[in-house]
Amino acid sequence: MTVRLGTATVLDGVDLTVGAGERVALAGASGAGKSTLLGVVNGTVPPSAGSVRVLGADPAALRGAALRRLRARVGTVHQHLELAGALRVVHEVNAGRLGSWPALRAAWSLVRPQGVADVVAALAQVGLADRVFDRTDALSGGQRQRVAVARVLVQQPDLVLADEPASALDPVLTERVLGLLAGPAGRGGALLAALHDPALALRHCDRVVGLAAGRVVLDAPAAALTVADLAGLYGTPA
Amino acid sequence: MTALLERPAAVAPRLRRDRRRWAWGLAALAAVGWSVAGALDGVNPAGAAQVGAFAAAALSPAVDGAFLGVLATAALVTVAYAVLGTALAVLLGALGAGAAARTTWGRRRLGRLGRLATRGVLAVPRGLHEAVWGLLLVTVLGLDPWVGVLAIGLPYGAVTATVFGALLDEVPRGPYEALRAAGAGRVAAALYGLLPRAAGGLLSYACYRLECAVRSAVVLGLVGAGGLGYQLSLSFSSLRWPQVWSAVYALALLCLAADVAGRAVRRRLAAPRRRAGVLSRDRVLTAAVLGTLAAGAWSWWFLALSPASLVSARAREQVGVVLRAAWPPSADADLLRSVASAAVGTVQTSVLAIALASVGAVVVMGVAARPAGRCPPGRRLAGVLVRLALLLLRAVPAPVWALVLLFVLLPGVLPGAVALGVYTLGVLGRLAGEAVEEADAGPRAALGALGAHPVAGWLYGVAPVVAGPVLAYALHRWEVTVRDTLLVGLLGAGGLGALLASELATFDWPAVATVLAATVVLTLAVDLVGDRARRALR
Ligand SMILES: Nc1ncnc2c1ncn2[C@@H]1O[C@H](COP(=O)(O)OP(=O)(O)OP(=O)(O)O)[C@@H](O)[C@H]1O
Ligand SMILES: [Mg+2]
């Protein structure tokens, strides 16, 4: 599978399969193509050549409601979070359920928030329960990142895509958030996470895929790797 | 949920609604309901046939040489009014800016008083519509070309002074203070330390005023000052529909040309092109400035303006007579009662107009926005069509829409509201579309990726971001619409404008003074409410 954006070839002949129950870390220098690869999987970046299969289905062959049902099973923590900001936290978190909500229910929820108990429970897991009704743009960077994580928690997807999901969090929260995102993988789903911290990748994932300039240069079980092996991906002397 | 969530929430805070916003929202809804109730009187079925004939003529405008010649001359008159009116406004604005700017007054208490006083004085000419100025000036000066120039120049001058003052106040004051510290006088320091930084903004605003002046000059014609609008009203009153359409097309073209040229120049002003390292001016901008100056000189000659007629004995005498007759304003109970009910009608018209325009703008803004990435050709085509339709809506001034609607609708709130609503939709739709273009596409794409219905994606990803700016635009346009409602009223749609027209027709000067005072108070009150509402939104 290949992705070209503008004149640049960002992903070049990537061939990758993630099995059920697997937790896979994506490693690679900044600009290597990790975010783009995650975008291809969740459908925000169309591949220029090749094909993608997600949860056993071909998204390119699906339309309308069927495509929405497939996408509802894929949850993403985006690198730039992609929260609207001008909404209360409860709505931003509830947005995780838009894949299963009809439009009318989504609209009504903006007036009278639906399923607040679930939202509060998800927020409690990331330590934000007391901010449910605050405006999202009044939160700190790390707090917003936790809102994005809570959105994925209420979505209850089978496949979790996480792009630097803990980049703004303290060590304790980092552990907790990665544990939460790995939840679906433990129940037969999967986790694909771009992680810059090699130690974190080795601790939380079963397998590490290394990208460099858009190509897969490393694919090995975490147990067979050391932090020093991963450091090589970043061009630092091991 | 249960599989994922082991621990119950520690605390569950309560949802606290923002009382202030809810109050404003409910008040707005109530105002719209009240205005709708006021608009429920009458449709005029007898006029439907006329509208049919009128609409049918749209495809066969008059194109005979003689009439086109007349139209061309009329268009030149309109342009000349616009150019000279703007020139006068900029002159007055520059003088007034000195009086309105904080820089002049400093920060002491006396300074604050001085600024307040200036603002108060400026509010009066600003509160009266150009067309009202036109009507008043006609009674004083007769059919002199100065009427058109002054009717644009005076109210525009007051607005320009306020805006120029604000622009000067926004310029960083370091260079100015440095020059002052080095011993330069206030004027010299302002010329070297403030003006160069503010020049772009000032020019850009002057250019915007010229665009607006073209529209105003057309409208002035409708109340009898000559030019394209005048031709239009002549053809209209003699029911010559093909000619009416020729005039409508001509003035739509003129307004469009002003719009497009003005936007091009303003965009250029925001990012001028200079060759690196060479001290050279932007050719387009230089040409625009020189061209405008030349157009000013030509206009002066073309309209055969003579300063003498401004200060002629007859004019001075007329001013004296009118002012003496108008003081004190009438406090007749009957008049006050009809002023009150006309004011109610005016507010209802403007509220209904802005409600129509806002709903329309919200409906079309998604399509009106140019999509950022790739998209199907059907979507692109729909966007072009919607933008074109909005362009046409705002190219035809609201009074023209009103004249047409007065065939099918009885005079009252409804025709004015629909006419102004249609025109304002043209303006608001574009602004809202641009707000959508500026909004980040990321959140919406992210919602699409998790399977959200497109409507839901819009509600959670785009609407929250654009709601603020769009509401602010709508409030601002409401203030403008109240002024325009007066104008539409002058042409017979009802409200304070209609009352003013009838008092003017009978030369009842004390009553005219009362109506004018009510007008100024109403516009000031509306500005105040709009300002408060905008602050609550922030
Ligand atoms: N929309 C785009 N148009 C053109 N090039 C793009 C676009 N998006 C990303 N790229 C390029 O693709 C390459 C990979 O980007 P990507 O965001 O996938 O990197 P990344 O591995 O996630 O980096 P980081 O660790 O810094 O987030 C970069 O060189 C970037 O410049
Ligand atoms: Mg990235």
TrEMBL record, chain A:
The keyword Nucleotide-binding applies. Residues 3-238 form the ABC transporter domain. GO terms for molecular function: ATP binding; ATP hydrolysis activity; transmembrane transporter activity. Transmembrane segments: none annotated. It holds the Pfam family ABC_tran. The keyword Nucleotide-binding applies. Keywords: ATP-binding, Nucleotide-binding. InterPro entries: AAA+_ATPase, ABC_transporter-like_ATP-bd, ABC_transporter-like_CS, ABC_transpr_LolD-like, P-loop_NTPase. It comes from the Bacteria. GO terms for cellular component: plasma membrane. This is Phosphonate transport system ATP-binding protein. It comes from Geodermatophilus tzadiensis. The lineage of its organism: Bacteria, Bacillati, Actinomycetota, Actinomycetes, Geodermatophilales.
UniProtKB/TrEMBL annotation, chain B:
Gene3D superfamilies: MetI-like. GO terms for biological process: transmembrane transport. SUPFAM superfamilies: MetI-like. The keyword Oxidoreductase does not apply. Signal peptide: none annotated. It is found in: Cell membrane. It is a multi-pass membrane protein. It comes from the Bacteria. Its main location: membrane. Residues 75-266, 343-530 form the ABC transmembrane type-1 domain. Keywords: Cell membrane, Membrane, Transmembrane, Transmembrane helix, Transport. The chain crosses the membrane at residues 21-40, 66-95, 146-168, 212-232, 244-262, 283-303, 351-372, 384-410, 457-475, 487-505, 511-530. One of its GO terms (cellular component) is plasma membrane. Belongs to the binding-protein-dependent transport system permease family. This is Phosphonate transport system permease protein. It comes from Geodermatophilus tzadiensis.
